[in-house]
């Protein structure tokens, strides 16, 4: 997740609520912030007031003891007096779905997300199979990572279940275009892809409010990665198409992101992110005038020390850009006799743009 220019956005709220506190940000919408034990040290979750029918919670934080204790406090204070009717998850990442199973059991709430996000969470929560481990080993070996880093990355495999100890057994499936009624407010489900395969965003047209999960953030670019299970995927194409789709919403929409502060300036921010990825693509093509490994491209794009957690995401993002350039015909990929992929510029290729 790289920083991108954000002069095109305005922040109507100067400060976030305290950890475990809440702040009203729109009619019937409470902003709750939960601490994360990562460099990205927080997640914003949202409580939607459905009146007598109760609360709809959007995203949950990790499934660790500390997060559960914070939720116990919120249920007893800020949310007291009304039941939790529904838990909605924007996507399968641990900071978004981790506490969902516990909250559903604790409150008796319904659980809702897209089918793809639910299935991926269910799969990963069960741990890696030998076939999945073999696929990951091939994937990172092909990338050109050194043996020590490969071993560290493999040791990290299976960590998903630590942040997501359980996933609800049943769900209400959300599809793009569905209307989710929360009291008298109708939230339209907006689809998209890129950060994950089928994330859920919610839009309240009456009040001009968007909850996009991680699909659009005010200061950093959402991670767009290729993973071992789908090594030839092109999630960047999906993400760029999703950015284009935000132009259909009003420019003054209040955006409630999962990280950072709520902001206005949706169209400008989408343009910033499109330009950010265009710059990445433009940087990679000349770098590959001589054959390069994915690991070399990763180090070019992320020229700072990376821990194992960051390396996994940086490698996934580098390969996402490489795969996109292959699909565009700007790069060629060949596998050497050592099993490592090499990427080189295609003959006669000109500039690459995302527009």
From TrEMBL:
Highest taxon of the lineage: Bacteria
InterPro entries: B_lactamase-like_C (IPR048933), Metallo-B-lactamas (IPR001279), RibonucZ/Hydroxyglut_hydro (IPR036866), Sec-metab_biosynth-thioest (IPR050662), WH-like_DNA-bd_sf (IPR036388)
SMART domains linked to this entry: Lactamase_B
UniProt keyword terms in alphabetical order: Hydrolase
Pfam families: B_lactamase-like_C, Lactamase_B
GO molecular function, a single term: hydrolase activity
SUPFAM superfamilies in alphabetical order: Metallo-hydrolase/oxidoreductase (SSF56281)
Domain Metallo-beta-lactamase: 42-259
Name assigned to this protein: MBL fold metallo-hydrolase
Organism: Azospirillum doebereinerae
């Amino acid at each position: 997740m790289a920083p991108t220019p954000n002069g095109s956005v305005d922040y109507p709220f100067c400060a976030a609520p305290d950890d475990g506190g809440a702040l009203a940000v729109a009619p019937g919408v409470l902003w709750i912030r939960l601490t994360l034990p990562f460099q990205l040290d927080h997640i914003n979750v949202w409580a939607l007031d459905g009146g007598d029918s109760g609360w709809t919670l959007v995203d949950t934080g990790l499934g660790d003891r500390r997060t559960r204790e914070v939720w116990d406090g919120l249920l007893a204070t800020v949310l007291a007096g009304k039941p939790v009717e529904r838990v909605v998850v924007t996507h399968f990442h641990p900071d978004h779905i981790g506490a969902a199973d516990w909250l559903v059991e604790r409150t008796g709430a319904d659980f809702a997300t897209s089918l793809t996000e639910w299935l991926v969470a269910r799969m990963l929560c069960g741990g890696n199979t030998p076939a999945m481990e073999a696929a990951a080993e091939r994937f990172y070996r092909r990338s050109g990572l050194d043996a020590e880093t490969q071993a560290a990355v493999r040791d990290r495999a299976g960590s998903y279940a630590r942040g997501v100890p359980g996933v609800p057994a049943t769900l209400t499936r959300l599809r793009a275009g569905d209307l989710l009624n929360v009291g008298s407010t109708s939230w339209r489900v907006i689809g998209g892809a890129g950060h994950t395969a089928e994330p859920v965003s919610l839009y309240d047209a009456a009040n001009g409010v968007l909850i996009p999960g991680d699909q659009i953030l005010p200061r950093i670019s959402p991670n767009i990665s290729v993973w071992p299970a789908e090594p030839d995927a092109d999630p960047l194409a999906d993400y760029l198409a999703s950015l284009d789709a935000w132009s259909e919403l009003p420019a003054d929409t209040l955006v409630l992101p999962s990280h950072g502060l709520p902001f206005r300036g949706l169209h400008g921010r989408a343009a910033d992110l499109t330009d950010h990825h265009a710059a990445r693509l433009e940087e990679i093509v000349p770098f590959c005038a001589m054959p390069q490994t994915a690991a070399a491209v990763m180090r070019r794009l992320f020229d700072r020390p990376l821990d194992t957690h960051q390396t996994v995401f940086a490698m996934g993002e580098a390969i996402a850009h490489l795969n996109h350039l292959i699909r565009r015909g700007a790069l060629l990929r060949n596998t050497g006799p050592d099993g490592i992929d090499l990427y080189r510029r295609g003959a006669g290729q000109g500039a690459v743009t995302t527009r």
